[in-house]
Amino acid sequence: MPAANQAVLDYLATRLSYPAKVMQGPVPSEGELAAILTTALRTPDHGKLEPWRLVVIDRAAMIRLADMAEARARELGADAEKIEKGRGQFDRGTLAVAVIASPKPSDKIPPIEQLLSAGALCMNILHAATAAGWGANWLTGWVSHDAAFAARAFGCTPAETVAGIVHIGTPASPLPDRPRPDLARLMTRA
How far is it, in rounded angstroms, from Cα 28 to Cα 35? Predict the structure, then answer.
């Protein structure tokens, strides 16, 4: 029988995403963020391709990105709601890390596995930040899926996509848990 790491199991059983829109300062220092990201980089990466890159978004960049999101929404002829959704996560954000899925040419590792690795990296950033005592939230929104915005904001090439924008900050207050999926409804056996 393997030895369980009960502390990790307890953490996973109670982990919550903290809403980015209600996080506040302070945020992790450069050193604390480096420790979070170094831990998070221990993510599944078949073939050791490192099919992702990270863009740190500080408060000054948030202001610039909010304006860019609004400009892009207006360029698209978007309504007020879409403009607000585009600006929103940046207007209210203090610190975030954009995970850019950056697939590498490979005969052995298909693009979907590389994209899933980028998603796993987003989850690892959430875990590392939360385990370090911070609030964290993985967001996307239309700005993450708009190729023109991603290119302008994060320097994405046509082959790259935004896997997620993980906001990190200080939780304003404790959160109640939300209803969780029913395992019995979702699981079958082959």
Answer: 10
Domains of the chain (ranges, CATH numbers): 24-170 (3.40.109.10)
Report in angstroms the alpha-carbon separations of 19 from 24, 140, 173, 186, 190.
Answer: 10, 13, 11, 26, 37
CA angle 132/137/138 to nearest 5° reads 120
Structure tokens at 144: 């993450």
CA proximity to 96, closest of 62, 65, 48: 62
What's the CA gap between 96 and 115, in Å, rounded? 20
pLDDT in tens, 47-93: 999 999 999 999 999 999 999 999 999 999 999 999 999 999 899 88
Q: Are 27 and 95 in contact (CB under 8 A)?
A: yes
Indicate the pTM of the whole model. Answer: 0.94
